[in-house]
Please model this.
Amino acid sequence: MTPDIKQRTTSDQEWTRVRRKGRRPKNHPAPEGRGPFPGPKPGQPFLTLSDIQSEHQRIKDQWESSTCCRRLREIISSHSSQHAISQAICFGLGSFDPENGSWENRRSAHVQLTAFLCIVEQLQRSSSQKIGCLFQEPLFNSVDREFLQSLGHEVVDSPRGFDCVNPSTLVFGIHLYRDIYNQTVAKHLPAMFVGTPYDIWEDFQGFSLSEFVKMKELDERSVKVEFPEDSGYATFSTTTIHWRQDEK
Model:
């Protein structure tokens, strides 16, 4: 079998790689995805830390000048939470160095990271305490972890991220499987939740309320705003920002 080969294409933003046959890329977790399921395994690093840092800066600069970013800042600054946010946990970000080498997957991971930190930055402005950021993603390879740690954040293994969710947490998880969402709210409803809303799941055949009771409760107790569109991409499609309200 031929080992992986790294090449530049004509685009400065693209890497290509020749892969052994039989490897499967990460499944895109569409709403109909159901758990439990076997946990994915991280691949071997292909890009260097410097590669990822350079790519992140380029994509971050582009996205921060977008309408999506401007609109997100406006939404967060105009919706004050009833609950002080003490920590922020990002689930299922995806690898910055996916095994299939997909430029779209890499861009999605960088944009979602930038959006997550943008929200934290806005929340931090009205917080008297530092909001720590945790990341849980089974597909992270060693360089993914090194990159996030170089930004001053903590990377944890499952199920620690789920166990850390409390009533003062921001949970950020885009396009995750239903079982993952269930685990994020199993013990506590977070102060803020960014992810696929309950009503999207209701439209799928085989949906059972008994499997999604806590998400239904979060839906009923939240003020909700659609996540702004990432023009030309489905990065935040069917994504809603939830602010949990106190029970009356």
About this structure: Residues 9 and 15 are 6 Å apart (CA to CA). Residues 103-124 form the longest helix (22 residues). The helical segments are 49-64, 67-78, 103-124, 142-150, 160-164, 178-184, 198-202, 213-220. The first strand starts at residue 5 and ends at 8.
